[in-house]
Input
Amino acid sequence: MNSASNLDWSHQSLRQEHIQMAAAFNKRAVELGYRDLSDFFWYHTIDLGDGLVTPGTYDYRFNLEPFRFPENMAGMQVLDVGSGTGFFAFEFEKRGAEVTSVDLPSMASLDRFPGETLEQTIRKVEGMMREHSLLSTDQKRQIFGRDALQELYRTHLDGPFQFCHSRLGSKVVRCYSTIYEVSPEKLGKEDFDLVFLGDVLLHTINPLQALAAVAALCRGTLIVSQALPETTETRPIMLYVGGEEPGKDEVTWWWPNVPCFEQILRKLGFREATLAGYHTGRVRPGGGAYKRAVIHARR
Ligand SMILES: C[S@@+](CC[C@H](N)C(=O)[O-])C[C@H]1O[C@@H](n2cnc3c(N)ncnc32)[C@H](O)[C@@H]1O
Output
């Protein structure tokens, strides 16, 4: 078998696996007395106990080592910004931390390219969901036929988080804010021992401003995990990955390289900023490979 057919096989098997996971999740949810949850999009795979495992696009459950999080987080105040379905927030809580999870107050507050209209944002979010989800055409028509942004917020972001939160009996505090607007007043805490930014800076038009807002809340370690440009460039650079076609932009804008992260983080007052490693995997259902760098910065 050549490598191309190996790849096809692996994409097919991930798709099959995803379909089976989704069917098992939906069946188990109904058995446990929940409503039909098949309209929800699961970004993260989260084990909710009693045989209920969310059919997530990203499954980090057995691949946490590369992040180099402290094993024991007892007594730590942790902030997870751009928390999504909350896998990392719940993991930090499991390790003993007191956790604040931040995500957007609405889909309309996603960063927009200058000039992008709300209508274009709606199409963009619909596109993202279509790509990821296993919903039937009828379900999608129902969702997109109503108030698309609100429905997408409920089915894509906040509904899945709230379901997991309640199911896990979690004490994670959810705060609704853009990354730019996080502040002690909003979060009810002066600062945090550990701040995690997983795949969120790349969705900001102004990553420097976003990083500065969260850096001000970090008294210990800041951990950033995201894709980096494939380059041997040693000067600090930030690669623009937003595309060139008006109205066709994705939600990803910038990939700084490691020297860029290191310099910005030092300028923001961190004593050291280093590449701790990489984590890799494949997304469900598409099977696309990903590789993310993990950067640790310490006060
Ligand atoms: C790609 S997901 C990453 C989820 C999780 N942190 C992880 O690493 O798996 C990005 C998350 O960031 C949120 N997000 C995007 N732009 C944001 C912004 N400007 N402020 C706060 N959150 C944002 C999205 O709603 C989404 O939940």
